[in-house]
């Protein structure tokens, strides 16, 4: 018996045009090509879809990832763009990554000495994030060792506060990075994340910029409007069941919501296991046939209920959870007491990613 291809109950529509417009705008403001972060399944948007779209952009130099598996997946796509690993691999992973052509992060003399001769390295400099990298007073020696071995391609740091209104520490971090670069031969230097591009613009001596969530259409509140960024991902879920709740009856776990009158309810195939925040309970809304409607009761693992009273809704119908217009992922993050990063990267494997124009 042939097993059918079972349909997803939730789908993320990933817009090629929005992504490419964002990348062009960000590269223009930074004044350099982009090293596009596609870690965490391209911030929940789908690694392959995003990478294939972005690889067609003249504004994208290459891709940045967080873990070796992501680098391996990108290498398998054979998109003709460099891949930079931003976090340290284990010593056992280094040879295979070098064989794949993945650019490797290096922060110590021991790491520099252990690289194969055909590797390409990006010196990681910790200018104040205190997460990864060589301290500025140690970084020049590591970079010089890499240069002596003929494997030094780039150097990078990461801003900790470039998305905050006060940019004084970001300027200090950049000053520290420039001091390190002054002791090294010419290389591909990169520092700005999305906040850095929006708040600081073009930075002297930089060859690349690394806009993360900004590439996907989001900016800190005080920086919205600096560039015309468009959200790349819209989320929809399917109505799986329709039923009536009578006045006085409760809805979902814990009986948190009591129907004030007879209601028509739609059960929707999306829950916190798919990435819709459970903390949005009693606050969330969705769009049904162009109308904003409340999510009733506690959000479940695989589904939630929506008031569709007065609407001619059918099972199998797709409703909008967020998009470029109306309800946004920023709204959903606010209802869930979290940030857009967490909501987007939390989208699970049961959510189908679909490329759209």
Structure description:
This protein has eleven helices and 17 strands. Helix 3 (47-54) packs across helix 4 and helix 7 packs parallel to helix 8 (168-181). It has two domains: 16-218, Alanine racemase (TIM Barrel), CATH 3.20.20; 233-356, Lyase, Ornithine Decarboxylase, Chain A, domain 1 (Beta Barrel), CATH 2.40.37. With 357 residues, it is α/β, with parallel strands linked by helices. The protein has helices at residues 16-30, 39-43, 47-54, 68-77, 94-99, 109-114, 136-149, 168-181, 194-200, 329-335, 340-345; strands at residues 10-15, 34-37, 60-65, 83-85, 104-106, 121-124, 152-156, 188-190, 233-245, 250-251, 257-258, 263-268, 285-288, 291-296, 304-307, 318-322, 351-356. The strands form four sheets. Strands 1, 9, 12, 13, 14, 15, 16 and 17 form an eight-stranded mixed sheet that branches. Strands 5-6-7-8 form a four-stranded parallel sheet.
């Amino acid at each position: 018996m042939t097993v059918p291809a079972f349909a997803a109950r939730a789908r993320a529509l990933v817009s090629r045009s929005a992504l490419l417009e964002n990348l062009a705008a960000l590269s223009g403001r930074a004044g350099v090509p982009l090293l596009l972060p596609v870690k965490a399944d391209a911030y929940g948007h789908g690694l392959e879809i995003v990478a294939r779209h972005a690889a067609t952009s003249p504004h994208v130099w290459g891709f940045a990832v967080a873990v070796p598996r992501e680098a391996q997946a990108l290498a398998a796509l054979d998109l003709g763009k460099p891949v930079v690993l931003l976090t340290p691999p284990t010593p056992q992973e280094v040879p295979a990554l070098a064989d794949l052509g993945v650019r490797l992060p290096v922060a110590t003399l021991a790491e520099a000495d252990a690289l194969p001769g055909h590797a390409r390295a990006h010196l990681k400099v910790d200018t104040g994030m205190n997460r990864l990298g060589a301290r500025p007073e140690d970084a020049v020696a590591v970079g010089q060792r890499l240069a002596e071995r003929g494997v030094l391609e780039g150097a990078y740091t990461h801003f900790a506060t470039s998305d905050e209104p006060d940019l004084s520490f970001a300027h200090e971090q950049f000053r520290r990075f420039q001091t390190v670069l002054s002791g090294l031969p010419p290389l591909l230097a990169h520092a700005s994340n999305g906040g850095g591009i929006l708040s600081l613009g073009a930075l002297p001596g930089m060859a690349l910029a690394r806009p993360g969530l900004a590439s996907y259409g989001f900016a800190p509140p005080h920086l919205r409007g600096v560039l015309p960024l468009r959200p790349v991902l819209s989320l929809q879920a399917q109505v799986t069941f329709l039923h009536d709740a009578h006045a006085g009856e409760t809805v979902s776990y814990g009986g948190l919501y009591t129907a004030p009158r007879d209601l028509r309810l739609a059960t929707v195939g999306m829950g916190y296991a798919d990435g819709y925040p459970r903390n949005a309970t009693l606050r969330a809304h969705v769009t049904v046939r162009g109308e904003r409607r409340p999510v009733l009761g506690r959000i479940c693992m695989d589904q939630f209920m929506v008031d569709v009273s007065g609407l001619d809704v059918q099972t199998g119908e797709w409703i909008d959870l967020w998009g470029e217009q109306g309800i946004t992922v920023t709204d959903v993050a606010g209802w869930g007491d979290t940030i857009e990063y967490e909501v987007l990267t939390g989208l699970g494997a049961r959510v189908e990613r679909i490329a759209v124009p």
